[in-house]
Structure formats: structure tokens, C-alpha cells
Amino acid sequence: MPATGSWSGAVAAEPSSPGASHRQGAALVFSGVSKIYGQGASAVHALDNVDLTIARGEFVAIYGRSGSGKSTFLNLAGALDLPTAGAVTVFGAPPTHTLSRADAARLRNRQIGFIFQQYNLFARFTVAENVETPLVYAGLGAADRSRKVREALALVGLEELAARRPAELSGGQQQRVAVARAIVTGPDMVLADEPTGALDDDTGGAILDHLQSINRTLGVSVALVTHDPGIAERAGRVLTFRNGRLDGDERRSGAYGGEST
Ligand SMILES: Nc1ncnc2c1ncn2[C@@H]1O[C@H](COP(=O)(O)OP(=O)(O)OP(=O)(O)O)[C@@H](O)[C@H]1O
């Protein structure tokens, strides 16, 4: 595979829009994907020749020890970073390394929702304003934004807290705001990096329940990074990484997303 680790600048075809024919087929394809940070003696092979496909509607745990390559996987899957070699394809769009930065940003905004361990909310914005942010980037009008924000907050049970600021919320409530922000644009896939890592078991379990509900009722694919086996076993499929290699691919019936695979 040719080295692909920078934005080519070439203007790729417009990524598919939600509701288009990509609703059938793969959510995510990794073909011979490697990621090397640094060069020479200090080079770190964070991902090593990874091949995998995640189908539309799956709920997948990305599992492995610290340093196994989980976050690197998520960054490549979300077109936040590029592989050093190989190709990453998201919902049938051209491979991420062929997209311009603008096309990659559009792909992220339209089709991918991100959730992080530390919530990453804007402290000075209200709950509603935080959830509204991706809709502003998407160019929606004020009335549509307001309706979608209300719907997303209702999905996570936070309508009453719309006017508060993040510092006035519990950790679990802040993560529910992050979930609402991740789904407000109607993405096809949610990528979550240790979303329960900062929460106690019960509160974290409630976040997983929200993600399950989004997966089941909206058909949104979910890829959730965790180093916690108890969380991984709730997913319909567990992809285990070890030293940058895909070391296991286990499907479970009856778990989240288990029926759809
Ligand atoms: N920007 C970077 N520069 C250099 N090395 C990096 C960079 N990001 C990650 N790495 C290295 O790549 C390897 C994989 O890191 P990654 O963050 O993907 O692992 P992880 O499984 O998510 O770990 P954790 O569970 O601790 O977050 C590690 O050895 C890490 O030190």
C-alpha cells in the first residue's frame, strides 16, 4: 500500500449524505491500515496492518489494554487523522486519505458523532448551546436548530436542564449532554472514546443504556472504546486490539447490536 499519511488536498467526490444509498452496506472499512507515529528509532507502530469491516447498525466495543491502539483506531475511523498506509472508508465515501480537509470535516459533521471521556463541553455555553454547536456548523436555520436540540435533549432526558451551564451538572448529566450533541445532527455512526471512564458504574451504565437505545431505535452504528471487559461484554461485537494488531473479533447474540450482525 502506498504511504497515505497526509491530506492529499485532492478534491474528492462529495461524501454521501444521510439517507442516501449508503444506508445499506458497511459503516466502516479498514483495509491494510497501519499508523506509525514518529520516525526512525522513535517510530511507534500504533496500528499494524488492520483489516476489518463494521456493518451498518452494529454496536461494537473496541477493546484492549492501554497503548494497544484503540484511540488511534477511533481517530482514523472518524477521519480525525490519516493512516500511514492502507485505506479507511466511512459509509462508502472515498477513502479518508483522498478527501480534502474540507470534505473530511463535512463527512464528520454529517455522518459521525463523537463522545469523549472528559465530555469536552464548552464551559461558557449553556446545555442547549453546546448541543446546538454542530448544527450551526452544518448551516441549519434557527428554527430547525431549536427543534433538533429539544429532540436530542429529550432523548437523553435533559430538557429541563437546557439553560444550565456544564459546571452546574453532574458528570453523568454532562456526558448525556455530550451524547445529545453527538446525535443531534442525525449521524450514521457514533464513535465514543471511554465514554464511561470518568463515571461510577451506575452512571456509566445509564450512558451505555442511552447509546444502546440510540443504536436500536435510530439504527446508528456505535463504536465504543473501552479497556473494561465488563463494558465490552455488553456490546454485540468485541474487536480486541493488542500491540496495534487486531487480535480478536467476537460476536455475541443478545447483546447491544447483536441481532443486526
Ligand atoms: N501522537 C502520538 N505520537 C506518538 N505516539 C503516539 C501518539 N499517539 C499515540 N501514540 C502511541 O501509539 C500507541 C497506541 O496509542 P493509543 O492512544 O491508540 O492507545 P490506546 O489503546 O487508546 O491507549 P489508552 O487506553 O491508554 O488510551 C501507544 O504506544 C502510544 O504511546
UniProtKB/TrEMBL annotation:
ABC transporter domain location: 28-261
Keyword GTP-binding: no
Record protein name field: ABC transporter ATP-binding protein
GO MF annotation terms: ATP binding; ATP hydrolysis activity; transmembrane transporter activity
Top-rank taxon, per record: Bacteria
GO CC aspect terms: membrane protein complex; plasma membrane
CDD domains (alphabetical): ABC_MJ0796_LolCDE_FtsE
Organism of origin: Alkalicaulis satelles
Keywords: ATP-binding, Cell inner membrane, Cell membrane, Membrane, Nucleotide-binding, Transport
InterPro entries in the record: AAA+_ATPase (IPR003593), ABC_transporter-like_ATP-bd (IPR003439), ABC_transporter-like_CS (IPR017871), ABC_transpr_LolD-like (IPR015854), MacB-like_ATP-bd (IPR017911), P-loop_NTPase (IPR027417)
Regions annotated as coiled coil: none
Region ranges (Disordered): 1-22
Keyword Nucleotide-binding listed: yes
Family membership noted in the UniProt record: Belongs to the ABC transporter superfamily. Macrolide exporter (TC 3.A.1.122) family.
